[in-house]
Amino acid sequence: MKTQEFFNLLEEHQDKTLQFEYATNRYVAANYHITEVKHITVESVDCGSQADQWNETIVQLWESPAEILKTKHMSVLKALSILKKVGIMKAYDLESEIKFEYSNSKFHTAQLFVNDFKTKDSQLFIELGVEKTDCKAKELCGVPEKIVDALEKTKEKVEACCSPTGNCC
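User: That's the sequence. What structure does it adopt?
Assistant: Structure tokens below.
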């Protein structure tokens, strides 16, 4: 989800509480705070020697141990005001992907994508998820999408590509 799309969603549901589902049926506790917003520019080179650049907005969620018994989640309105204040101090790239950084004692620190959202009664649920790593240069490096089906046909090509003198890896 783009940053602007997320802000539009919050604007539409200002009267609700904001909850995050970080894994199937696992939710960020009501004692969460928005502790940091990162405006990230990623500059990368993939294994096919292709350069790329993009921006990301990363919102960090943290559960306060001092508020462990808290039962009411942050309102969408409060979250929106925090994010607007950040935008005044440091402008957003509204076309950048928005991610949420989160962890707890049972879940490793991860940057999670917005997969979907749903509303129920007075609640807005943001459904987060991980995205698996991938090779961006599959075609260039001769790595087929279905590697099991094509392994024998491409084994020599992949080995040549990934050799010290190859163009990939």
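The chain is about 25% helix and 40% strand.
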